[in-house]
Write a structure and sequence with these properties.
The protein is α+β, with helices and mostly antiparallel strands. It has 2 domains: 2-59 and 129-135, OB fold (Dihydrolipoamide Acetyltransferase, E2P), CATH 2.40.50; 61-123, no CATH class. Helices cover 42% and strands 20% of the residues. It has 2 helices and 5 strands. It has a 5-stranded antiparallel sheet, with no helix packed on it. It is rod-shaped, with a radius of gyration of 23 Å.
Length: 136
């Protein structure tokens, strides 16, 4: 996914940019309420930019791949854990479990994994910075 952003400031080791809410913002040089807060971006290709430049930014490919792997495998592993832990959990309470009961445990563990992924992504910042892909 890519977005347009306006370079707000450039220092020795930090580039701050703000993404546009609307296409009309590309011609605006004044800071308005529609513009988001500035965030730090990276310029790995050392493109020539200056304060006020309009750029296209995107996420680092390695970070996107890691997020994809985590978002696929955590629910998958939790579903497997739900299936195999259903019998021991129910036998702890002195009950036997059917295949329907195992399916319920799989769904419960999938719900748990969704909650876990949601909580982790809100508390742990995503590593890396958005990168400049193109200068407009």
């Amino acid at each position: 996914m890519t977005e347009k952003a306006l370079i707000m400031s450039i220092t020795e080791n930090k580039i701050l940019a703000a993404r546009f809410e609307k296409e009309e913002c590309t011609s605006c040089s004044a800071g308005c309420a529609k513009r988001n807060h500035a965030f730090e971006i990276a310029n790995p290709q050392n493109m020539k930019i200056s304060s006020g430049s309009i750029v296209i930014i995107g996420a680092n490919k390695k970070v996107q791949a890691a997020q994809g792997i985590v978002s696929l495998f955590i629910p998958f592993l939790c579903a497997i854990a739900g299936y195999f832990s259903a019998s021991p959990i129910m036998s702890f309470f002195g009950k036997s479990i059917s295949n329907d009961g195992k399916a319920v445990f799989v769904l419960l563990f999938l719900l748990l994994s969704s909650t876990l992924v949601f909580a982790v992504t809100r508390k742990v910042p995503i590593p890396g910075k958005p990168e400049i892909i193109e200068v407009l």
